[in-house]
């Protein structure tokens, strides 16, 4: 069933077009990889889908509601409750410990401190980094920071996780370990994942692969089973 | 690197770098003006003639009385403290951009020493420009303001000029000091080719020893009167030095104590924080408790002096009032005590207000800098749906939670020391001439003789009351100034949390 639906998305930064009429559906629990050369509009697409940016034209609907017309506050609330966001660098709050960083979205949602900490510890454990609970981001490796960031993105059990090159700053082995975790955990709670990457290898983790070029979808592949697409592999 | 290359690289940079250099130059210009004003006051020649002869060419008592000029110059020099603090804070503005530039230079092969010299040179050059501008402003200002009134008297000492070597020393020394300070500040920072590593802050809880400094100041102030009584006026000059040391130790104690206060407040907040805003604020406070000391140093120093001045004012007011009462008893109804000291206190208050304003300007720089260094983490929080108001609230908590106790301690320390220095006022204790008749008769020297009696008046020791109103005004003003600056700083939050910050570099 389609949960998130984008139609005819157009977005420019001044004279630079980033999206030029893109249409895309994301089903419940589906894992979609978005690939394509640098500058083809992947991040912009992700930001529009997640309600961080408003498209210039076109519409984004979430479970039948047009969210691109919502106010900033309403979209913030949606991101806080239904969506999770993950970036290339963890962007953890430097002054908070691992557990506090993970607990932050729950505290925002009004969960009590003890319950939030318990949930955070649980998620750190599921990502195999229980020992980071009382460690500051500055003392973590890149991979460890990213695991904390995944825990922070998943702790609210979002319906869609948006990940923009989450392994871009990691070495191949660490990156693959991270993605295995991400895909398994998302699958366990049927969280859909929109995974932006420019590494075709990583797209293999997806149910579906979307290859973008110049602000539109060039073609669609089918994850692991897809034929070698567009000279990218 | 050749000096030419060094100079060119030192001034290369983006718009924030330019803003920082302009602000640095401005504070240097301001500092130059203030120092030159102080030097000018000191340059006024002592009028010939017996002790107590005034320099009649001025309208202002502060300038006419040779004995008061030292104090005036000192007050002016005190004003340079917040100005210099502002300059120091400006040096941190846009630091991330400069850090990146310095790191790029290291990557291109510059040595750590060259990088430090570069940064010092940048500050030095900007300050030199500012100092020259300040000198120019001073020279132009003294011609423009040279307006003798009808009697040929002047409002300002525009007729004297400090010695030329002194002018040169000021214009050259200020930039040198600024450059040196930058080099010293950069000692805690290592610029590696991959970015800038700040040496980890002091670990562990700050010790409560700053309270000792304040205590020492209060003790010295308490001993001031008795010591002066027993030593006599011969040592007054030395005692003035003691007062200065007392004041400085109290200011140091309050400023350093703010670190302790920040830490304790952070701990408390952390224990009871249930909202993310307070949690963020708490962590930031315990993480770098000295940030509060750095941020509020100038403000707190101004408040210590302001509260001390309030105590002085209360003392002078009480003395005036007692004198008026005694004169009333004696029948001199319309006698007005000379409120020269009260007018001087007005000037001190003005200086304090100026200092608070300058300190508040420095605070804006600090708040904006704090936001811009964390902009990526903030932008990521906003992207995950954290409302900007939550971040704004956390910044507000972080600034206000330590500032309220710090302001109270500054006011307390300043007032107690001022109160101790002045002591109580003893009046009476002698025979008074009392005129028992209507004011009209008492005014007439001949008629008066028939109505006067001599009465033994017991000695009364009166203590000036706590000038709560003025202290509240000072504290309230400071907190409002802080609030206003945080408000201005928060305007930058929106642009600093834009999604652009998240674009992978
Ligand atoms: N904030 C911005 N300002 C100006 N141009 C931008 C901005 N963000 C993206 N762009 C431009 O839009 C296009 C798409 O960018 P982006 O979505 O980041 O691509 P990708 O993530 O695929 O590399 C690029 O040409 C990029 O230069
Ligand atoms: Mg991108």
From TrEMBL, chain A:
<dbReference type="InterPro" id="IPR015854">
    <property type="entry name" value="ABC_transpr_LolD-like"/>
</dbReference>
<dbReference type="GO" id="GO:0005524">
    <property type="term" value="F:ATP binding"/>
</dbReference>
<dbReference type="GO" id="GO:0005886">
    <property type="term" value="C:plasma membrane"/>
</dbReference>
<dbReference type="InterPro" id="IPR017911">
    <property type="entry name" value="MacB-like_ATP-bd"/>
</dbReference>
<feature type="domain" description="ABC transporter">
    <location>
        <begin position="4"/>
        <end position="232"/>
    </location>
</feature>
<keyword id="KW-0813">Transport</keyword>
<dbReference type="InterPro" id="IPR003593">
    <property type="entry name" value="AAA+_ATPase"/>
</dbReference>
<keyword id="KW-0547">Nucleotide-binding</keyword>
<dbReference type="InterPro" id="IPR027417">
    <property type="entry name" value="P-loop_NTPase"/>
</dbReference>
<keyword id="KW-0067">ATP-binding</keyword>
<dbReference type="GO" id="GO:0022857">
    <property type="term" value="F:transmembrane transporter activity"/>
</dbReference>
<dbReference type="GO" id="GO:0016887">
    <property type="term" value="F:ATP hydrolysis activity"/>
</dbReference>
<dbReference type="InterPro" id="IPR003439">
    <property type="entry name" value="ABC_transporter-like_ATP-bd"/>
</dbReference>
<dbReference type="Pfam" id="PF00005">
    <property type="entry name" value="ABC_tran"/>
</dbReference>
<protein>
    <submittedName>
        <fullName>ABC transporter ATP-binding protein</fullName>
    </submittedName>
</protein>
From TrEMBL, chain B:
<feature type="transmembrane region" description="Helical">
    <location>
        <begin position="471"/>
        <end position="493"/>
    </location>
</feature>
<dbReference type="InterPro" id="IPR003838">
    <property type="entry name" value="ABC3_permease_C"/>
</dbReference>
<keyword id="KW-1133">Transmembrane helix</keyword>
<dbReference type="GO" id="GO:0005886">
    <property type="term" value="C:plasma membrane"/>
</dbReference>
<feature type="transmembrane region" description="Helical">
    <location>
        <begin position="207"/>
        <end position="225"/>
    </location>
</feature>
<feature type="transmembrane region" description="Helical">
    <location>
        <begin position="237"/>
        <end position="265"/>
    </location>
</feature>
<keyword id="KW-1003">Cell membrane</keyword>
<dbReference type="Pfam" id="PF02687">
    <property type="entry name" value="FtsX"/>
</dbReference>
<feature type="transmembrane region" description="Helical">
    <location>
        <begin position="160"/>
        <end position="186"/>
    </location>
</feature>
<feature type="transmembrane region" description="Helical">
    <location>
        <begin position="296"/>
        <end position="316"/>
    </location>
</feature>
<feature type="transmembrane region" description="Helical">
    <location>
        <begin position="115"/>
        <end position="140"/>
    </location>
</feature>
<keyword id="KW-0812">Transmembrane</keyword>
<feature type="transmembrane region" description="Helical">
    <location>
        <begin position="347"/>
        <end position="368"/>
    </location>
</feature>
<keyword id="KW-0472">Membrane</keyword>
<feature type="domain" description="ABC3 transporter permease C-terminal">
    <location>
        <begin position="351"/>
        <end position="431"/>
    </location>
</feature>
<feature type="transmembrane region" description="Helical">
    <location>
        <begin position="21"/>
        <end position="44"/>
    </location>
</feature>
<feature type="transmembrane region" description="Helical">
    <location>
        <begin position="395"/>
        <end position="417"/>
    </location>
</feature>
<feature type="domain" description="ABC3 transporter permease C-terminal">
    <location>
        <begin position="91"/>
        <end position="186"/>
    </location>
</feature>
<protein>
    <submittedName>
        <fullName>FtsX-like permease family protein</fullName>
    </submittedName>
</protein>
<feature type="transmembrane region" description="Helical">
    <location>
        <begin position="73"/>
        <end position="94"/>
    </location>
</feature>
């Amino acid at each position: 069933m389609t949960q998130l639906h984008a139609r005819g998305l157009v977005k420019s930064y001044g004279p630079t077009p980033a999206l030029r009429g893109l249409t895309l559906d994301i089903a419940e629990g589906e894992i979609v990889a978005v690939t394509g050369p640098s500058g083809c509009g992947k991040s912009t697409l992700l930001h529009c889908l997640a309600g961080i940016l408003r498209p210039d034209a076109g519409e984004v609907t979430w479970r039948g509601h047009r969210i691109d017309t919502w106010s900033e506050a309403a979209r913030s609330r949606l991101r806080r409750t239904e969506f999770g966001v993950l970036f290339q660098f963890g962007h953890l709050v430097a002054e908070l410990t691992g557990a506090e960083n993970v607990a932050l979205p729950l505290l925002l949602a009004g969960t009590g401190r003890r319950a939030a900490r318990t949930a955070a510890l649980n998620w750190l454990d599921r990502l195999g980094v229980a020992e980071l609970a009382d460690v500051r981001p500055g003392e973590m490796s890149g991979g460890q920071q990213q695991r904390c960031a995944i825990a922070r993105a998943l702790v609210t059990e979002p319906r869609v996780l948006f990940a923009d090159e989450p392994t871009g700053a990691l070495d191949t082995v660490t990156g693959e370990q991270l993605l295995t975790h991400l895909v398994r955990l998302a699958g366990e709670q049927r969280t859909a994942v929109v995974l932006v990457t420019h590494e075709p290898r990583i797209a293999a983790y997806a149910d579906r692969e979307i290859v973008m070029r110049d602000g539109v979808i060039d073609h669609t592949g089918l994850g692991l089973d897809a034929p070698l697409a567009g000279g990218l592999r | 690197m050749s000096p030419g290359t060094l100079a060119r690289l030192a001034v290369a940079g983006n718009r924030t770098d330019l803003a920082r250099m302009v602000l640095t130059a401005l504070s240097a210009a301001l500092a130059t003006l203030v120092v030159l004003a102080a030097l000018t006051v000191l340059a006024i020649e002592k009028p010939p003639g017996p002790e107590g002869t005034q320099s009649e060419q001025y309208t202002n008592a502060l300038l006419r009385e040779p004995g008061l000029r030292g104090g005036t110059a000192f007050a002016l020099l005190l004003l340079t403290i917040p100005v210099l603090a502002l300059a120091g804070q400006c040096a941190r503005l846009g630091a991330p951009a400069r850090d990146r530039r310095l790191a790029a230079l290291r990557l291109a092969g510059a040595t750590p020493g060259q990088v430090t010299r570069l940064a010092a040179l940048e500050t030095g050059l900007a300050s030199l420009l500012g100092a020259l501008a300040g000198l120019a402003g001073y020279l132009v200002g003294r011609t423009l303001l040279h307006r003798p009134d009808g009697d040929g008297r002047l409002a300002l000492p525009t007729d004297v000029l400090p010695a030329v070597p002194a002018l040169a020393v000021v214009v050259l020394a200020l930039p040198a000091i600024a450059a040196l300070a930058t080099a010293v500040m950069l000692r805690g920072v290592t610029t590696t080719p991959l970015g800038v590593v700040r040496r980890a802050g002091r670990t562990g809880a700050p010790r409560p020893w700053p309270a000792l400094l304040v205590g020492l100041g209060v003790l010295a102030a308490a001993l001031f009167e008795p010591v002066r009584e027993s030593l006599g006026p011969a040592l007054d000059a030395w005692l003035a030095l003691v007062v200065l040391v007392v004041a400085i130790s109290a200011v140091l104690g309050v400023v350093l104590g703010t670190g302790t206060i920040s830490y304790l407040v952070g701990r408390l907040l952390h224990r009871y924080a249930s909202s993310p805003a307070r949690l963020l604020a708490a962590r930031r406070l315990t993480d770098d408790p000295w940030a509060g000391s750095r941020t509020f140093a100038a403000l707190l120093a101004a408040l210590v002096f302001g509260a001390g001045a309030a105590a002085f004012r209360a003392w002078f007011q009480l003395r005036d009032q007692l004198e008026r009462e005694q004169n009333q008893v004696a029948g001199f109804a319309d006698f007005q005590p000379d409120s020269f000291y009260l007018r001087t206190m007005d000037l001190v208050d003005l200086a304090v207000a100026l200092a608070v304003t300058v300190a508040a300007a420095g605070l804006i720089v600090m708040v904006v800098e704090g936001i811009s260094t964390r902009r990526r983490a903030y932008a990521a929080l906003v992207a995950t749906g954290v409302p900007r108001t939550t971040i704004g609230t956390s910044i507000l908590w972080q600034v206000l939670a330590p500032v309220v106790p710090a302001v109270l301690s500054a006011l307390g320390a300043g007032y107690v020391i001022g109160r101790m220095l002045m002591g109580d006022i003893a009046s009476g204790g002698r025979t008074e001439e009392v005129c028992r008749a209507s004011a009209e008769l008492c005014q007439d020297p001949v008629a008066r003789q028939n109505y006067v009696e001599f009465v033994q008046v017991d000695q009364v020791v009166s203590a000036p009351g706590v000038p709560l109103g003025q202290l509240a005004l000072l504290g309230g003003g400071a907190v409002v100034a802080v609030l206003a600056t945080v408000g201005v700083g928060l305007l930058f939050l929106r642009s600093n949390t834009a999604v652009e910050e998240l674009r992978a570099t």
